[in-house]
Amino acid sequence: MLSDWTLWLEWFIKSLVVIFALLGGFAYLTWYERRALARIQSRIGPNRAGPFGLLQPIADAVKLIFKEELTPGKADRIIFFWAPVVTLVPSIIIAAVIPWGTKFTAFGREITLYLADINVGVIYLMSIASIAVYGIVLAGWSSNNKYAMLGGLRSSAQMISYELALGLSFVTAIILANSMSLLDIVNVQRAVPLQIGNFTIPFPGWFVFVQPVGAVIFWIATLAEVNRAPFDMPEAEQELTAGYHSEYSGMKFALFFMAEYQKMIVICAIAATLYFGGFLGPFVDKYPLLGPLYLLIKVVALLFGMIWVRATWPRIRYDRLMSFGWKVMLPLSLAITFITAMGIVLADVFHNQLYYWAIPFVSVLIGLFTVVMIYRELRRKAYERA
Amino acid sequence: MSALDPVVELVRGLWTTLKMMAEKPVTYQYPEQKREVRPRFRGRHVLKRYENGLEKCIGCSLCAAACPADAIFVEAAENTDERRFSPGERYASTYEINMLRCIYCGYCEDACPTEAIVLGDNYELSFFDRRSAIYDKAMLLEPVPSPEMLTPQKVEPGKYDRRSVPEMKDPQD
User: What is the reported pTM?
Assistant: First the structure.
C-alpha cells in the first residue's frame, strides 16, 4: 500500500496545506489581533496597507527580513541559533493530528480530511506541546542576558505548573470519548436528539456542555501554555524587557513570534476539537468539505476569546500564578476528572443516563465551591494584612 | 460583596471591554483628514508683516536671547528710506531658526517687542537632511498679497524714521 505513489502525494499535499494554513494563519492572526485590540481600545488598527490593512502582515514580514540580526557577544552561538527553530517546529507539527473533517471522494479515491489519525493523538499533543518550552528556555539561557534567562525560567516553571491541569482536562475529554484518537473524540460529540415535548431538536453533544468546568480549566491552562495574557509573565515587557526573546532580532525574533501565534491557533483548534465539537456542524455529514469551515469558525471565535482576555485582564503576579496553578487548578481538575469518571461508570453500571447528565451539574457545583474558597482565602489574606 | 465576586468581577471586566467594541473609533485618518489645531497651538514659526507689507521684525535679537534651546540666530542691519524692510532704524538681515533645536516653547513669541514672531499652525515639518532643518528668513516670512508690498520698499523719507513700537494688546484667545 505504501508503494502507492498517489498516497504519498496525498499526504504530501495535505502536509503542505497544514503548514501553509498555519503560516498564513499566523500572518493574519497578527492582523486580526491588532484589529480586534484596536476596536476594543476605540481605535481602528492597521488599515493602511491594502484594503482593511490586509497587506500589513506582508509589510511586517518584509521589515523583519531586512532588519539587522544581532548575536550577543557572549551568547552560546549554537544554542542561540537553534532555539527559535526548536520553538517553531513543534508548533507546526502539533497540528498534524487535528482532524479538520471526515472524508470525501474526489479523483476516484477517498480522501480523508485529516493528516494523521493516530490512536494516541492526545498523548502526541501533550508531548509535542511540552517540547516547545525547551526552545524558550534555551533561548533565555543562551542569550547571556539575565532578563532573557528569567523569562525562560518563568516559562518553564509556568509550563510545569499548568501542564498538569491541562493534562487532566485532556484526560476528562479522553474519558468522555473513551478514546485517545482526536477523530474519535470529535465523532463522539455528534448531536444528540433532545426530546422536548413533541419536538426532537439536535442538541450539540459538545463536551463543553457535558463538562463545562473542564473546558474552563482547559482554557485557562492553554492561556498559560502559550504564554498569553494574563499569564504572559515570560515575556513581560515591563519587568523583563520582553523576556526570553530580548536579545533576538530580525528573522530569529520573527520565528519566536510565529511560534507563539501558531501555538495560539493550534491550541484553539485543539480546544475546538476536544470541547467544542471540532469540525462538527449542521450538514457536515452530507458535505464533508464544510468541516474545515466549521473548525475555522470555531478557531476564530476562540482566538477572539484569547484577544479579548488580553485586552481585559492585567498580568497576574508571579507567586499568584504559581499558587493558582498548584492550589486551585490542579485540585479542581483532579476533582473534575473524578466526577467525570464516576458519572460515566455509574451510568454504565446502573444503566441510567441520569448519572451521565449529572456530570455538568456536579462539576459546576464544584467550580462554584472553588470560587467561594478562593474568595474566602482572599478575604483571609486581606484580614491578615489589615 | 458576595462570595462569587472573584468570577463576577472578571466577567464585569470582560463586559466592559466588549462594550467598548461598539463605540466609534476616535482615530483621525491623518493625511486625508486633519484635525483643527487649538488657538494657542505652537507650530512652525511665522514672521509677521504690517498691513502695508513692512516686516514687524526689527532685528533686536530678544527672541534669540530668550530661546532656551539656542535655536534662533538674528543679524540686524540698518534700514534706509531707499531700502526699507521694517519701520524704525534696523531690520533683521539674517533670521534663522534651527528646527532641530527648537522645542516650540513659545518664549520667542513672548519676548518679541513687536509681535513679529508667532508660532503658527503648521506642524508638518519633516525633512530629510540636517541642512534643511535650518529655516531662513525667506521661509519664515509671511507671504504678501501683492508684489509691490514686498520688502525692501522705497518709502517717502521720514515717515518711518521714529522707533515704531506698535501698540501691544493682551492675547485674545
Answer: 0.78
